[in-house]
Amino acid sequence: MSMTIHTGTIAHVRGDPFGAEEALEIIEQGALAIDRSGRIGLLGERNAVFEAFPNSEIIDHGNAWLIPGLIDGHLHFPQFYATAGPGNGLLDWLENTVYPAEASFADELFARAAAERFVRHLLACGTTTAMVFGSQFYDANLALFDAAARSGIRLITGMTLMDRNAPPILLRTAEQSLDPVEKLIGLCRTTPRLYYAITPRFALSCSPALLEMCGALLKCHPETYLQTHINETRTETAAVRAAFPRSRHYLDVYDGFGLITERTMLAHSIHTTDAELDRMAEAACAVCHCPTSNAYLGSGLFPLQKHLTRGIRVAMGTDVGAGTQFSVWRELSQAYKVQQLRDCRLDACHLLYLATLGGAKALGLEHEAGSFETGKSADFFVLDYEQDSYLAARLGRCENAMDQLFCLLHLADERHVGATYVHGRLAAPRNRSLP
Ligand code: GUN
Ligand code: ZN
């Protein structure tokens, strides 16, 4: 059988390093054989792969690293131009920066151009799977679906639903939201690599009637995901307590409407209580850690260890636009620093896991994405540090490949992404400047 063989230094995580599984694999003169259908055929030493598949096309990446496509577990499409906006904490920032920016997606032409750029931005950062809050506007979501389908990126997304506490242009009642959401769910069913996530923004922007509709949709369409925010800031959690006095805690608001399942992704979870953590573990939902955003809004330090010790799956997210950049790789360096402040020491394997296989597991996509296991979709990016003379010199001083990976995790960024491949196909060429 003839394959396409990519060569370079190959790094991926095969198991859960937090569960003490045999995890990091680095192959220095490595090769990745990809079959005609875009799936991983074989991973191994360069010569062994060449021998196994003679007459294959060879793409030689020199000393660059080949790494599984990054998984961004949380960001907002209609906040593409809301990065670095002013705000005094989450609620003030939503009102003054985010809602006006999101309203501009009512303009379909504007939304179409933004969707193209949004998807190219993600790919240019090495992201091949992303869970995305969509727009409040149906046509803007269609634009995002189109851009995603054309590019080949794997997207899990849905219309952001809200029916209170925001400008009227962004609000839809449960009744008004139902039809567009069902249409979008139908479109996802027939589009490869596109998945629908029911997306109530957060408890403060959703009435009980809207949350009830979300629960009904989730039941009716078991292939869908649910994404929302939880326990991001202390002011927010206090406001949720006041708005839902009959709920035991923030999680209970969502739980009461059947929104907490193994297909649920909760962004932030910083001020989560032990009772909530225990219930998250029982319901097997996932949580997304967005450290840049959390620092930007002054939200707090994510208690990673408390989640992991209960077996709660954790993904990494950029949370653009509270996140100020699009690179999940850069989020890893920020996560390392935040966890240092929490006395939780992460190594290179932990970090790479969170952005690849860990993220895939959090999304229930570990059979498809997150590592270079045979049969998975060939989603990866090329990290090419050699043209950066400082980085090349710094890596030259490392004792081994594991130390080099640790340096790359802190010192490389999207400028070093040589190319991004989705399902074996080149989706973003060298990144001289971001699109
Ligand atoms: N909580 C509710 N909406 C948002 C949002 O857009 N960004 C963040 N970071 N938190 C939220
Ligand atoms: Zn968010």
From TrEMBL:
<dbReference type="InterPro" id="IPR014311">
    <property type="entry name" value="Guanine_deaminase"/>
</dbReference>
<dbReference type="InterPro" id="IPR006680">
    <property type="entry name" value="Amidohydro-rel"/>
</dbReference>
<dbReference type="Pfam" id="PF01979">
    <property type="entry name" value="Amidohydro_1"/>
</dbReference>
<dbReference type="InterPro" id="IPR011059">
    <property type="entry name" value="Metal-dep_hydrolase_composite"/>
</dbReference>
<dbReference type="GO" id="GO:0008892">
    <property type="term" value="F:guanine deaminase activity"/>
</dbReference>
<comment type="function">
    <text>Catalyzes the hydrolytic deamination of guanine, producing xanthine and ammonia.</text>
</comment>
<dbReference type="GO" id="GO:0006147">
    <property type="term" value="P:guanine catabolic process"/>
</dbReference>
<dbReference type="InterPro" id="IPR032466">
    <property type="entry name" value="Metal_Hydrolase"/>
</dbReference>
<dbReference type="GO" id="GO:0005829">
    <property type="term" value="C:cytosol"/>
</dbReference>
<dbReference type="InterPro" id="IPR051607">
    <property type="entry name" value="Metallo-dep_hydrolases"/>
</dbReference>
<keyword id="KW-0479">Metal-binding</keyword>
<comment type="pathway">
    <text>Purine metabolism; guanine degradation; xanthine from guanine: step 1/1.</text>
</comment>
<keyword id="KW-0378">Hydrolase</keyword>
<comment type="similarity">
    <text>Belongs to the metallo-dependent hydrolases superfamily. ATZ/TRZ family.</text>
</comment>
<dbReference type="GO" id="GO:0008270">
    <property type="term" value="F:zinc ion binding"/>
</dbReference>
<protein>
    <recommendedName>
        <fullName>Guanine deaminase</fullName>
        <ecNumber>3.5.4.3</ecNumber>
    </recommendedName>
</protein>
<feature type="domain" description="Amidohydrolase-related">
    <location>
        <begin position="66"/>
        <end position="388"/>
    </location>
</feature>
<keyword id="KW-0862">Zinc</keyword>
